[in-house]
């Protein structure tokens, strides 16, 4: 039987969250943020700087499109969407290092992180249910 400390350490090795991904981007860490939602969802809005590869297309496209990539962070719509988990399982099976961003696009948007669509940047908003906004409008999680 696995103990709690081992379980949670293993879990954290394969997942991350929107705040940590944004901090990693700002720090210049070399990671690929991969939106695994549908083409329609991608056109509606996505995380600035993300690549797009719907999870159903990963088996045929990932070997070429992710060649040489050392770390991938996948995301889908929300905590209720399991496309990110499906994508992570497929990518891991292909031998690609992967973590899932829990909360998905929904939590990224709720935290006021940068998003865009085909027309350009989308307005940033901060959800008081997940963020505290200071007087200088900087979000604090």
TrEMBL record:
Residues 27-117 form the Rhodanese domain. Transmembrane segments: none annotated. SMART domains: RHOD. It comes from the Bacteria. Pfam families: Rhodanese. Coiled coil: none annotated. InterPro entries: GlpE_sulfurtransferase, Rhodanese-like_dom, Rhodanese-like_dom_sf. PANTHER family: FAD-DEPENDENT OXIDOREDUCTASE, PYRIDINE NUCLEOTIDE-DISULPHIDE OXIDOREDUCTASE. This is Rhodanese-like domain-containing protein. The lineage of its organism: Bacteria, Bacillati, Actinomycetota, Actinomycetes, Micrococcales.
């Amino acid at each position: 039987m696995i103990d709690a400390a081992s379980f949670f350490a293993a879990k954290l090795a394969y997942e991350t969250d929107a705040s940590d991904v944004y901090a990693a981007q700002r720090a210049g860490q070399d990671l690929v943020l991969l939106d695994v939602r549908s083409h329609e969802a991608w056109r509606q809005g996505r995380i600035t700087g993300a690549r797009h590869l719907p999870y159903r297309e990963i088996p045929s496209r990932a070997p070429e499109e992710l060649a040489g990539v050392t770390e991938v962070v996948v995301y889908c719509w929300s905590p209720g969407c399991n496309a990110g988990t499906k994508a992570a399982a497929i990518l891991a099976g292909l031998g690609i290092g992967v973590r899932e961003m829990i909360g998905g696009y929904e939590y990224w948007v709720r935290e006021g992180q940068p998003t865009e669509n085909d027309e350009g940047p989308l307005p940033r908003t901060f959800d008081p249910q997940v963020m505290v906004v200071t007087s200088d409008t900087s979000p604090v999680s």
